[in-house]
Amino acid sequence: MIVAEQKPLEAVLKMMAPYQRVLVVGCASCVSVCLAGGEREVSVLSSLARLARGTQGASIEIAEATVHRQCDQEFLLPLASQVEAAEAVFSLGCGCGVQLMAETFPHRRVFPLLDTKFMGITLQPGVWVERCRGCGECILDRTGGICPIARCSKGLLNGPCGGYRDGKCEVDTAVDCAWLLIFNRLQTLGELESLRAIMEPKDWSEAAVGRPRQVVREDVKVPIEEVIA
Ligand code: SF4
Ligand code: SF4
User: 162 is in which domain, residue-wise?
Assistant: First the structure.
């Protein structure tokens, strides 16, 4: 899932300051799982904003909505009348949700209330960690299912840097050395010999550092107009 964190309340209030009537929109998918932008967070944040405005002797009308996914236009279009009635929209979706909201309603300012962090997993309740950097060419089959790009601080592809101590990464001693994890996993699988094969330089043109990417499936492609008709 995409993991995100709410911006500090002060930053939210500063963005809302020019407006009297706003719409706060949550997303019931990834960002609700990491407790950043779901229905509950929409409600709590809206209440805090109303209280803050009240302490200034003023008021603000905040309409609340939460859609199934902000990154699919079919879930955004039913918000049209609420968007129309608001002076500005405040999104508790990830960066993709904010952008599609702005594309769908180009005549309204759309503000991001989250800082989008990474693709990750729930390690335990309250702890989410990065597991994938969307490199575009997955190599987990060669590394025992442990990603050296997302989990090695240096993104090394052919073994550790030699800086790890007591199984921890030299860049951040709070995290395990990814290459020690890979070694241990391959040992468990009886596949240590596979480490002798040198990994060729990766094709980074397929990674996030290159051009904007897209995935197209011609067999299921349908014009968006037909979907939202
Ligand atoms: S190798 Fe690439 S696609 Fe696979 S988990 Fe790592 S970053 Fe993600
Ligand atoms: S200590 Fe391990 S995880 Fe950290 S940078 Fe070196 S090889 Fe990567």
Answer: 136-221
